[in-house]
Structure formats: structure tokens, C-alpha cells
Amino acid sequence: MMKTANRKNIHVTPLWLRVWHWVAALLFMVLVLTGIVLTYSSSEFALIDYKLATDLHDITGISLTVIYGIFLVLISVTGYWRKYARRWHGQFRRMRRQISNAARGPSLPASGIKRGQNARLWKIRPFIMTFQQFLYLTDIYILMPLLIVTGLFYLYPETAPEKVMGFAGLWPMAMAHYVAGLLGIVFILFHIYISTMGGLRHMITGRERHTLNSSH
């Protein structure tokens, strides 16, 4: 009996989530650019006009807050949150198992490696993809809310608490906003790298290729 492998495109990501993903990514990139201008500009040099950067940063931050609220509503109404819950469950256990398998597993034959990919990297690909899921869930449920909340305190400083851990209320919010922004940049860079392993097509078409084995 001979087994053959068939590939089938399976719809895995709804259109509304893909649209949200790309809009959020675009808004975040604008926030990064304008945030760099606001943080590091001087009287001698600025990438763009400081007032323009401030206006863009404020408008983009409010827009990100709005679409994040829409995202929370949609995952609740559609029940998509259950998929995120399943992904989160056992994340660390799966990553430990995948690292262990990659460390002791046999090398893949050349035929099993895509053109231009390193064999060692291909062996740890399952871990990288699972780690990407962990970072994505951390980003949308922890990092993004932190960025939004601290940004709103920045936008409306009169709402900030007077003291936080003995410091003037706005200062810890500013530091948290800065750190959240840096972590967001790291996540975006890693996210872009992961997209080279097949995630980009997935987030465009909403379909992912699966190998189905059949016997005949």
C-alpha cells in the first residue's frame, strides 16, 4: 500500500480578522515613526515636522484604540476568542517539547527543506511558529492594552494619578509607554521575519496549506 501526500487549502482566518490585522499593523508603523520623531527630535534635526508628528501620533493612537475595541467586540460576538484560548492552553509545554524534538531529532532530508532554507532552522520551525503564537497573544492581550492605556494618559494628562509608586503619576506612564513601544517594535520585526516562512500568504488569503496523507 502506497501513501501519497495531497495538499488542500483550508480556510482558517476570517476576512474581518485579516483586515483588522493589516489596519492595526499600518497604524502601529505610523505610531513607531511618529514616536521616534517625538522622542529623538532636536532643534537641529527631525525626520518630519514636530507638530505634524504630534498630530499624526494622537490621531493614529485614537484610531488604534477604536479598532482594538472593535476587535474585542468581534472576537466576543463571533466566538473567535475560543480559538485564542486553545492556542494559549499548553503553549509552554508545546514549546519545551518542540525544542527537545529539534535537539535530538534526525536531520531532515534535503527533499524536505524548502529552497533557500537552512536545515537546522527547518528543524526548529515548529518551535518558532508556536513562539510566534505566544508573542502574538501576548501582544494583543497585554502589550497593546498597555500601549493604549498609557497613551491615553499621555493624551489626557489630567486623568493620570498624582502618584504612582512614589513618582509623579505621568512619569511611570511615560516610561511604560516607551517600553511598550520598544517591545512592540521587537514583536513587529520578529513577526515580519516569521512571515517569510509562509505566514504572509496566510494573512492575505486566509487559507493555509495542509498535507493530507492518503493510502491506495
Describe the protein in words.
By secondary structure, the protein is mostly helical. Helices cover 69% and strands 10% of the residues. The chain has a single domain (9-106, 119-215), classed as Fumarate Reductase Cytochrome B subunit. Strands 1-4 form a two-stranded antiparallel sheet. Strands 2-3 form a two-stranded antiparallel ribbon. Strand 2 (163-164) and strand 3 (167-168) form a beta hairpin. The chain starts with a strand and ends with a strand. Residues 1-5, 108-113 and 210-216 have low confidence and may be disordered.
Show the helix and strand layout.
Elements: E1 3-11, H1 15-40, H2 50-78, H3 81-88, H4 91-104, H5 119-123, H6 125-155, E2 163-164, E3 167-168, H7 170-205, E4 207-215
Antiparallel strand pairs: 1-4, 2-3
Helix pairs in contact: 1-2, 1-7, 2-6, 4-6, 6-7
